[in-house]
# Entry
Amino acid sequence: MLLPESRNFLNKVVKRVHFFPDRADIELELSAHIEDSALFLQKEEQLDEREAQIKAIERMGNAEEIGTALNRQHNPFLGYLWYFSRIIMVMLCIVVILQSIPMLLVSGWTIVFDHPIRDIPKETYVRHVEPNIVIKLDDRRIRITDVIQSEDGSLHICYSHYSLSFSSLHGWSFGGLTGFQDEDGNTYFSGGGRGTAGLYNRARRSLENFPFDKEILIIELDRAGRYYRVKIPLGEVKQQ
Amino acid sequence: MIRLKKTIRNLLIIAVLLFLFMQFNGLYFSPVQALHASEKDLHFGPSEIVHSFDYGDSRYFLTRYEDFVSCPSIEKALGVFWRYGGGYGSPNDKSRPLFYQEAKGEGDWRIFGVRNDVSIAYLEATLHDPEGKGAPITLTCKEFYDDMFCLIREGEEHLMSITAYDKAGNIVYESKYRE
# Structure
């Protein structure tokens, strides 16, 4: 139990410490020292509790000097920098975790479960090639994984894509492959398709009524300074 | 010393988290960075910034890239950041003495373009509110930046007509009147 004299001594010390979050710890540590010292004096010099504490305070030295020394040790600039950096770090951590959960879930779902190629029943395939061609478009990498023609004449181009930059976390979504033609220069626009969302995406583009006698699919883009052209041999049409 | 180490560790973690936070939310320290990142994602540009100006909480850019012109806006966010935005340009139709595009933002209306006929000294745009109730408003533009211009106004107006004049006040170009 600290005496008012000891409290007064501790107040004088901690007043000199400008980094206030440390004041309580300093006070606790010094009071423990005073109590230990007082107990020792009670035993060694047969003093009563009050006398022992007063002597212990005297032995501690000048409160202002101790406070000044402690203030140097508990640098307020570094102290506040550490204190606020801790708060900001925790807040940012919570925000980033909360924001990343939906994106990770969607991306994980795509990687594990969502394969647009499964939209096409295997028994309807009349030709199927796996070109595995990578198109580089700025930071985006587009991998053409499968080209399938089904018995209704539709040509399905299956591809995956992702961005090397982090902008896929917030940016414009990729509009999809465009510019389809055959070896004779006939262009194909009509059809459907779908894509997935997330950091890693899979997509399918289906072109209606692609002739069975065409042997090559050309995908070409030449716009706004960007260019790519890929030629995909489509292989033999399986006899029905 | 322990506190110094902890502070350095915290600051490094903050830098990584801040980077992720900015990426998740499309935030950049500079509007030009935000504009060019946006253009790159659209597989366009980087465009040349002809002129920029602040209006409301956004910075507007008059830009050119090859034959494309555009006037994207980049919005200020959280006081110190600029939010990813902007868009694809429109190809300048050089057969027209005055090529222009209308764009609508959140609560603002703007018209931008390029004078292909250098004799154009100023232009007037007549606007109407979408419901056609108010009196028509005429905006005049006399400033061109490398032949590009932009007129901006708060509100939901739409363009009724645009007329371009030479120095002497003769009509060089007149758009079709739109109700």
